[in-house]
């Protein structure tokens, strides 16, 4: 075996031993020290945390030789911390509110006395994390319920400082359609979403497309926007949804919301009417309800939680109408726009049912298992843009399967050693297809007559939608980690692995679109359909090791991460369409990426009282990657070319096959000029991949300070800088300056003439 083969085999073996996959991290921690009244350290103190949030009820550790302790992997909730040592009074801290993704510092000063005596303190919960360099916003359940949002992870994320959305959600207008996060220059593909630390990202857009999670499952939502440890692959928004687990008593609830159309204004102004607009976008009917229930199946052993959400969202689309049945769509559209209110406006109707179930099982004092399944059953009955015939040219979006789920095991093998492993999946099946009765069998007369029609002068579309498509991305992830925790050190090693396939298909009636200009046939857009492209994520592997070292007031966090990424184009069989015959081809492998990423930070407890933290960090993050690079070189994507059409027989059907005799003004049976097709139309377009292509990455630097100004209130100031490296471009290297023809174009605004260049 070669060195490279030995390396891969060794890494695979390590991965199998540890567990495997995505971003897993402990939820929260409690740390601190125990001293006597003279200030001397107290090793050997038993520190116990207790909370109803823990299915096992309690967790305990022993302070180390520095008198320090740390308890990790704690769920958010209210805790009691008890310090006990023979010869000393028991010290108890009650009412500690521990949020997600937070390290709370709780110190104890123990007096000499009887072991049975106890000093109980009810203090304010810390609000400043003096141990980590993570910039994160925790949104607890009471905030999620109180603040009006569209109840999606994106609309909730709008509450976080620094986070931007590609399309803001106003009044629930994006409740059924995703928008994408951006923070500090890192866009949607750099967003990682986890549930209980297990990744639920899909494959589409290098993972930028997120799952539709039922927000009722969320106890707390954590949005990390800067910093991070070696567990974190990307520098964008890293989101962890801490799920509800049930409890030892049955509890549930229900909520409903509605946005009446009468609450909206109408911005159909005279100016818009003069421009030919007769109806504007609005929200006609938006409501949802969500019911949930949780509790014990076996007290202290097996808990359940379940919820069901139903949402309906009807959105009238600007300048779309159900035209009179006795008129053709072009004539009916002209009638509707000329007679405001005479025609019913077209509506994009959307609905979603979203069930979820979760089980948590404390199989033994040292073995905890959890699993969940979350499905989103979505239907968008008439997706369309302005000027579209709702009956024939709108698109049906439906999702036979849109689901995420996970299975996780965690075990505190000793008070210092924690092992956890889990697996998760994101399976998406969604199609964009014609309305019922529009799709026709290829080669039949109805198929030729069923093409999409559009008019460039009026901007209308009828007859059929654009090409139908199916998207089937599947991603499967596994993860494993081991943590060795003392009071002064928190060492963690782990592995993350995911793989999957992204298959697609596209076809269209007649394999072309017909275009009119003021009702006169003008051109057709010829397609190379059908196509069935696909890519494969062969493997995305991350191995990491990190340590958090506490020395006095200073905590140093350092780690190293290695990322491996392999993706490829999936081969496909031969495809035969009206205008192309595409040969079969095999898999195409992309360059394999291997990258090392250091993570460094320091946090200083300025006054030693846990109320002021000064921190600085430097991190390298690789960009997220699934199949995006492979998709750019896939030779079989949908392509098109525009050629002349003369409707000789006036039947509104573009007749003609590849190579037919068009003639000067068309011929019967050959009304489209296929001689105008590029010589390479429909041929597989192979790209030459630079074997030295490197993975993009970023350097992220941050400096910040947090200070508790009063009980329950802290202020933070942060400076964040990012440098992005290895930005990828794509160039057609066979073209030079002689490959372009200059064309003078007159600006319709001021008559200025400027030059553009067309490919010959």
Shape: elongated
Low-confidence stretches: 1-26
Helix/strand class: mainly beta
> What is the helix tally?
7
Question: Would you count the extended β strands for me?
Answer: 42
Distance between the termini: 51 Å
What kind of assembly state do the chains in view correspond to?
single chain
Mean pLDDT: 89
Helix content bin: under 10%
Taking Cα atoms only, what radius of gyration do you get, to the nearest Å? 31 Å
**Percent in strands:** over 45%
Largest sheet: 17 strands, antiparallel
Detailed description of the structure:
There is one protein chain. The chain contains seven helices and 42 strands. The chain has 760 residues and is mainly beta. β31 (534-551) and β32 form a beta hairpin. The chain has a 17-stranded antiparallel beta sheet that branches. A five-stranded mixed beta sheet has the order 3-2-5-6-9, with no helix packed on it. The chain has a five-stranded mixed beta sheet with strand order 10-15-16-13-14.
Summarize the structure.
The protein has 760 residues and is mainly β.
Describe the secondary-structure layout.
Layout: H1 3-18, E1 28-36, E2 46-50, E3 58-62, E4 68-74, E5 77-84, E6 90-98, E7 103-105, E8 108-110, E9 118-122, E10 135-140, H2 141-146, H3 153-157, E11 164-165, E12 181-182, E13 192-195, E14 198-199, E15 218-226, E16 238-243, E17 251-260, H4 270-274, E18 285-298, E19 302-322, H5 329-338, E20 344-364, E21 367-375, E22 377-383, E23 395-412, E24 417-433, H6 445-449, E25 452-455, E26 460-462, E27 468-485, E28 489-507, E29 512-517, E30 520-527, E31 534-551, E32 554-569, E33 575-576, E34 581-582, E35 588-589, E36 593-605, E37 612-622, H7 628-632, E38 640-644, E39 697-710, E40 713-725, E41 740-746, E42 753-759
Parallel strand pairs: 1-7, 1-8, 6-9, 13-16, 25-29
Antiparallel strand pairs: 1-4, 2-3, 2-5, 5-6, 10-15, 11-12, 13-14, 15-16, 17-18, 18-19, 19-20, 20-21, 20-22, 21-23, 22-23, 23-24, 24-27, 25-26, 27-28, 28-31, 29-30, 30-38, 31-32, 32-35, 32-36, 33-34, 36-37, 37-39, 39-40, 41-42
